[in-house]
Structures are given as structure tokens and as C-alpha cells.
């Protein structure tokens, strides 16, 4: 076990209120049993290499794709798109890490009556989404207001994202 102690990340409040911009990373997530998403391990080379592709805090996150170009996850987040009112998150069976908050959001969304699916999410699928948001245990939910490489932008946060942010916050008790 490795335990690290450090200050809580200091993200601007507007990441939650206005959303963040993201980019597509050139670094690809490599499939394989040794480094797949079934375990949390210390080999974060793909994520570190992907994060080194840009400097600064805008865009706030990069999206990793598999070798076929399907979007899997962010460098430190999981991804959701809202299409026709339903939530779609990438299926991570071959590669990627299904985060704890991702699972909590899926459960909360289902309890609230949303359709939730795991499946393929391509850049064109993402560009056609009504809303996009990111999750992880430290940030909760960040609405996405645009993808720099795709030239798409959304009014963020959208109504589905707002509702899920409220549900996630309420679930913390």
C-alpha cells in the first residue's frame, strides 16, 4: 500500500459553475491484461504522457482514446455524454479505469429515472452530444463546455448535469 498526503487540489470554482474545456490527446490508451482497468496500479505512464501534451490549466483535462480512436476516459477522470436525454459513458472492458464516482453517478442517475448506457463513444458522438461532463472522486462532477480539437461548445452546466451534481452532493450526506 502506498499512502500519500498532500494538499487538496485547488481548482477554480468556475470549473463547476461554468464548466471546463477538454482536448483529445494524441497519446492512446493501450489495451492489455497487465495494465487494464480492473486494478488500480502505479503505472500511469499513458496518463502522464498524455497530460504532458499541453501546458497550463486550459484545457483542464485531456481525453484518452483507444487504438481505434474511441474515447475511453480523461487523464484523471471518467467521461459522460448526454444524448437524447440518456447518459452514455464509454465501455471500459478492454482498457480504462472505471472510477468510483463514475459508478456512483451511474447508480444515482438510474435511481432518478435516467437511462444509463455503457458503449462506444467516438469524437463525432461527443460532438453530437447535448451535454458532456467528467467525474472523479476529488472533483465530483465537472461540466464540459467545449472540446478544443473538435470546435464544439456547450452551455454548461446543462440541466442533466446540474441534476446529477445535486444528486451527488446530496448523497454525501
Overview of this protein structure:
The structure is a single chain. By secondary structure, the protein is an alpha/beta fold. 24% of the residues lie in helices and 28% in strands. The protein contains 5 helices and 9 strands. It has helices at 14-17, 45-51, 100-111, 123-127, 159-171, and strands spanning 20-28, 61-65, 71-74, 78-83, 86-90, 116-119, 131-136, 140-147, 152-153. Strands 1, 2, 3, 4, 5, 6, 7, 8 and 9 form a 9-stranded mixed sheet that branches. Strand 1, helix 2 (45-51) and strand 2 (61-65) form a beta-alpha-beta unit. The model has no long low-confidence stretch (mean pLDDT 89).
General form: globular
Uncertain residue ranges: none
Alpha plus pi helix count: 5
Output the helix-strand order.
HEHEEEEHEHEEEH
- The chain-level mean pLDDT equals 89
Structural class by SSE content: alpha/beta
Indicate the proportion of strand residues: 25-35%
Major sheet characteristics: 9 strands, mixed
Percent of residues in helices comes to 10-25%
Got a strand count? 9
C-alpha termini separation = 28 Å
Give me the Rg, rounded.
Answer: 15 Å
Amino acid at each position: 500500500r502506498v499512502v500519500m498526503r498532500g494538499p487538496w487540489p485547488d481548482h477554480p470554482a468556475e470549473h463547476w459553475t461554468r464548466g471546463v474545456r477538454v482536448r483529445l490527446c494524441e497519446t492512446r490508451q493501450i489495451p492489455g491484461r497487465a495494465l487494464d482497468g480492473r486494478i488500480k496500479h502505479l503505472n500511469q505512464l499513458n496518463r502522464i504522457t498524455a497530460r504532458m501534451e499541453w501546458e497550463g490549466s486550459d484545457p483542464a483535462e485531456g481525453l484518452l482514446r483507444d487504438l481505434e480512436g474511441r474515447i475511453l476516459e480523461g487523464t484523471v477522470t471518467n467521461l459522460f455524454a448526454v444524448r437524447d436525454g440518456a447518459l452514455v459513458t464509454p465501455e471500459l472492458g478492454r482498457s480504462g479505469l472505471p472510477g468510483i464516482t463514475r459508478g456512483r453517478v451511474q447508480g444515482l442517475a438510474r435511481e432518478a429515472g435516467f437511462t444509463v448506457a455503457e458503449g462506444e463513444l467516438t469524437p463525432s458522438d461527443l460532438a453530437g452530444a447535448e451535454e458532456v461532463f467528467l467525474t472523479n472522486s476529488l472533483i465530483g462532477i465537472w461540466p464540459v463546455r467545449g472540446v478544443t480539437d473538435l470546435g464544439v461548445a456547450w452551455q454548461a452546466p446543462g440541466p442533466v448535469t446540474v441534476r446529477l451534481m445535486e444528486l451527488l452532493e446530496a448523497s454525501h450526506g
